[in-house]
Amino acid sequence: MYSIDLSGKTGLVMGVANQRSLAWGIAQPLAQAGARLAFSYQGERLKPTLEKLTAELSSPLLLEADVTDDASLDRLFEQVRAEFGKLDYLIHSVAFAPAVTFEKPFLETERADWITAMDVSAYSLVASARRAAPLMSEGGSIVTLSYLAAERVVPHYNMMGVAKAALEASVRYLAYDLGPKGVRVNAVSAGAVRTIAARSISGFADLYSAAGEMSMLKRNITQEEVGGLGLALLTDQLGGGITGETIYVDAGFHAIGLFLPKGSEG
Ligand code: NAP
Question: Does residue 120 line the site of ligand 1, with CB under 6 A?
Fold first, then answer.
């Protein structure tokens, strides 16, 4: 039987808000394979949810951190170093853009909203990877979460699409810088999944059902499928040769060039 044993490995998971979070989908198989995990959350209000969610895991570490605050990130990685001594995996699953950027045309994007979206959704990967790298003394793997709007126009995504484009480019540059240290950096580009962040995007319900109907597999994807790809990219045993890559787990939606009107599919 092919099995993965991650005992002795450590990971930091950034961006679990609840049991539907994509980061939680990746954390579960990692923990089941034996990795010890730390979780960072933004604001004390999320702590009780995380405590409940992680109650079954072995000695999870719960740490507060706001990715827009350098001092907060310094504290986070220092706490990880003090407790774990080293880090093998970093899961970056954090994004935000002001609601107005999903509601108004992209043309009307204000400077401050652009900066906020880029800071939380793209620069935070660079800021986190920079602090994680010194802890990855035995090599390591970093995975972030992206979306098709980085490459194609998806109505409403606007500024988030631009931030995801910056995120995917950052993955390539970070992979180049960290490759010689044996640290791989990749993005999982997930199809639509009903999470808190997704539901706050205006028009998400329509986009979710359209993606399900139009994808090659004629369905939406699951959190477990995101978790499976995340696990593969994180572990050298499965994803060892992959770095600087964005891989889609979206039931084939991204690869379709033309959608035929209903009833005329060949
Ligand atoms: P989620 O459960 O709401 O997770 C988003 C996380 O980002 C939350 O934990 C949120 O914390 C955190 N966050 C936002 N601003 C932060 C900050 N300044 N500092 C620290 N954490 C912050 O939603 P999700 O869908 O799993 O999103 C995770 C990632 O997957 C995002 O990058 C998203 O763009 C990507 N993605 C999602 C989908 C989808 O359809 N769901 C598809 C493709 C890609 P708070 O709750 O405290 O704000």
Answer: yes
